Amino acid sequence: MARWVKEGKLVILGVTQEQHDDRCRLFAQWQGFHWPILYDPINVLELSGVPVLVAMDEHSIIRSTEPAIANFRADFLDKVFGDDAVVPHPKRVGPALKGDACFPDLNSLRALARQANSATAWRELGDALALWAGDEAREEARTAYSRAVRLDPKNGPAWFRLGVCFRSRYDSPKRQPCDFQAAIDAWGNALGLDPNQYIWRRRIQQYGPRLDKPYSFFDWVTEAEKAVRARGEKPVHLAVRPTGPEIAYPIKALPSTDKTAVNPDREGKVLRDQEGLIETEITVIPGRVRPGKSSRVYIVLRPGSKKSILWNNEGEPLRLWVEPPKDWQVSDRLLQAPAPSQAHSTEPRTLTFEIVAPANAPGKIRLPVYALYNICDNAGGQCRFLRLDIPVTVTVAR
After folding, report:
1. Out of 3-7, 291-295, 320-324, which region has the weakest mean confidence (pLDDT)?
2. Distance between CA atoms of 207 and 193, rounded to whole angstroms?
3. Do the Cβ atoms of 161 and 152 come closer than 8 Å?
4. What would the mean pLDDT of 15-22 be, rounded to a whole number?
5. All domains of the chain, ordered by start, with CATH?
6. Top-ranked range on mean pLDDT: pick from 2-16, 23-37, 302-316
7. Which end of the chain has a smaller Cβ tally under 10 Å, C or N?
8. Alpha-carbon distances of 84 from 61, 87, 100, 166, 373, rounded to whole Å
9. Helix axes 119-132, 138-151, angle to 10 degrees
10. Largest CA distance in the chain
């Protein structure tokens, strides 16, 4: 193909189906890709799996999918195609382009969505906003997809794209505490409607338990950055670095829980944080665990916004204790968050563990979890050692 590109007979384009575009750019930099790569986080192509090779002619008409490379020149490259096959997209509900026909006419799509008030029209508007209008249109896109799924709860693509918007906001300065769980729930709704959709399944597995992972999704990032630096280049900066579950490798069974782990506050004597000094955010992935299957629980702890609260890194480290109900398995009962070297800090701290539901699990259980931490009211203020009981609710799918 390189020869055909050099001869001017072929142009190569890539399309990435990732949530985070900068990770794709880092991979391309590492591998030395020199062709344009388009970014499709919402799966507007409606692919059910990747990779897919397509042949598109000079009129932007796809002439074949998965063309045979051995016959590619005769079947496609040396042919001259007419434009008689250009037909309106069957799913389009109105004018989508403006000007030089390169950009969506957002005002027309807004008016059409309000007038038609159909799931298709609202989804079309959401697509245009998500792909063309930038981060500032994220909320409007989320609203459009929300209206689409309210009108048609069986609209799997709209559910998936709604999840993309929630996760995108979660990664932004405008994040809301429940955005990550909302993204997982929306993706789960989409996958429930079409369990054969590879793209949707992988988006959940990216963040989910090791027992359900096909491979490590982003274990290559550190190697890529090292190789790029060795070439004298600066690696593409990642706004959200993959950590924990995103770089974890699959396992076939949870390791035996450490039976030597000791409940650090068995008698419940540590004073409770009743002022909301530390705020928590809980995400369970997948949102509904099947009997005998696993989920991963994320617990994020942040100094609250009510007061100037700091982590006290000179005391005992932040610890999390998990007490599994009878017959439930957990990957860890006692977890510990690493602390930075400075005496005080305000960063969010994330602890994750995996659970396996027994075959006879009830529809919903509460997982007893609590955190112990040292905080100070200011760098020179009162310091306290507190406990926070964290309500983790796990729903079992039947």
Report:
1. 3-7
2. 20
3. no
4. 94
5. 2-77 (no CATH), 97-210 (1.25.40.10), 253-396 (2.60.40.10)
6. 23-37
7. C
8. 10, 8, 20, 41, 69
9. 160
10. 81
Q: With beta carbons less than 8 A apart as the criterion, state whether 60 and 84 touch.
A: no
Characterize 300-339 residue by residue with b for buried, 16 or more Cβ atoms within 10 angstroms of its Cβ, and e for exposed: bbbbbeeeebbbbbeeeebbbbbebbeebbbbbbbbebeb
Contacts of residue 40, defined as CB under 8 A and 6 or more positions apart, other chains included, come to 15, 16, 17, 131
Contacts 24+ apart (CB under 8 A), 64-73: 73/4
- Round the CA-based radius of gyration of the chain to a whole number and report it: 25
DSSP calls for 218-229: STTHHHHHHHHH
Contact 69, 55 (CB under 8 A): no
Question: Could you give the CA distance from residue 368 to residue 263 in angstroms, rounded to a whole number?
Answer: 12
- Cα–Cα distance for residue pair 115/86, rounded to 1 Å: 27
Type of residue found at 51: P
pLDDT tier for residue 104 given thresholds of 50, 70 and 90: confident
| Pairwise CA distance, residues 122 & 109, whole Å | 8
**For range 299-308, the mean pLDDT:** 88
How far does CA 69 lie from the centroid of its chain? Answer: 34
pLDDT band, very low/low/confident/very high, at 94 (cuts 50, 70, 90): very low
Strands (E), the chain: 14-16, 37-39, 54-56, 62-65, 97-98, 103-104, 278-285, 288-289, 294-303, 310-312, 319-322, 329-330, 334-336, 344-345, 349-356, 364-376, 383-396
Do 282 and 390 contact (CB within 8 A), yes or no? yes
- Angle CA(53)–CA(59)–CA(65) in degrees, nearest 5? 20
Q: Which residues contact 74 (CB under 8 A, 6 or more apart)?
A: none
How high is the pLDDT of residue 95? 46
